[in-house]
């Protein structure tokens, strides 16, 4: 799997800046940074589950407690830990179930991204959401941060919705259909546009 800066990043920035003056401004504000690929499929999905419906800061602190408790957040370590241990890290009962289910899938060999490399984004999403606790948002984070797919638009992401409202509509949140229409101008680089909107809200890059 590719680690580090995606090969398409520079081209995406050139195209986005040419098509959209707001994007041009954001890209200029954060010149030397990019999305960074993560090396581990289980990690990426586990981090996304931890991050569901809580702030990035809260998710980071829960993740840090998991790392401290387990040594490394591997599927083996999750399955070996007790429910109490996992709950003590700040996970809800439901997230403990989801994390355990994900770990069981991983141990059974059902998380093999090598198989997914040629798959269409939507097909990967359909496969991932068969795992308990993985909804569309988590699957989209996986496409973005692990498979480094260039054209993901996570329409349920609070940061994306907020960023579009702030930069394009004076703080007013738009209906979903309008978000999709606005994002047309970013294709085929909607992942990159999403990432810059996230950065504009939080200068620390988010990673899953």
TrEMBL record:
CDD domains per record = ENDO3c
User: Which Pfam family name is an example for this entry?
Assistant: HhH-GPD
Put simply, this protein is called DNA-3-methyladenine glycosylase II
Keywords, sorted A to Z: DNA damage, DNA repair
Does the keyword section mention RNA-binding? no
Q: Does the keyword DNA repair apply?
A: yes
**Group of enzyme by EC:** hydrolase
Give me the reactions it catalyses: Hydrolysis of alkylated DNA, releasing 3-methyladenine, 3-methylguanine, 7-methylguanine and 7-methyladenine
Tell me which EC number(s) this protein carries: 3.2.2.21
Q: Which InterPro entries match?
A: Alkylbase_DNA_Glycosylase/TA, DNA_glycosylase, HhH-GPD_domain
Superkingdom, taxonomy of origin:
Bacteria
What SUPFAM superfamilies does its record include? DNA-glycosylase
- Which segments constitute the HhH-GPD domain? 50-202
């Amino acid at each position: 799997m590719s680690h580090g800066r995606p090969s398409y990043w520079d081209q995406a920035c050139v195209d986005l800046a040419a098509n959209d003056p707001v994007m041009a401004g954001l890209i200029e504000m954060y010149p030397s940074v990019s999305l960074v690929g993560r090396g581990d499929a289980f990690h990426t999905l586990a981090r996304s589950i931890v991050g569901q419906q809580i702030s990035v800061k809260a998710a980071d602190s829960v993740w840090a407690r998991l790392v401290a408790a387990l040594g490394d957040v591997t599927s083996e370590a999750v399955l070996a830990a007790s429910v109490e241990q996992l709950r003590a890290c700040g996970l809800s009962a439901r997230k403990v179930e989801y994390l355990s289910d994900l770990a069981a899938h991983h141990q059974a060999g059902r998380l093999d991204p090598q198989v997914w490399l040629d798959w269409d984004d939507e097909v990967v999403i359909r496969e991932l959401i068969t795992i308990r606790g993985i909804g569309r948002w988590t699957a989209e984070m996986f496409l973005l941060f692990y498979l480094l797919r260039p054209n993901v638009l996570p329409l349920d992401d609070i940061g994306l919705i907020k960023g579009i409202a702030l930069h394009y509509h004076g703080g007013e949140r738009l209906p979903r259909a309008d978000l999709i229409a606005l994002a047309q101008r970013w294709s085929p680089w909607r992942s990159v546009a999403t990432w810059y909107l996230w950065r504009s809200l939080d200068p620390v890059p988010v990673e899953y």
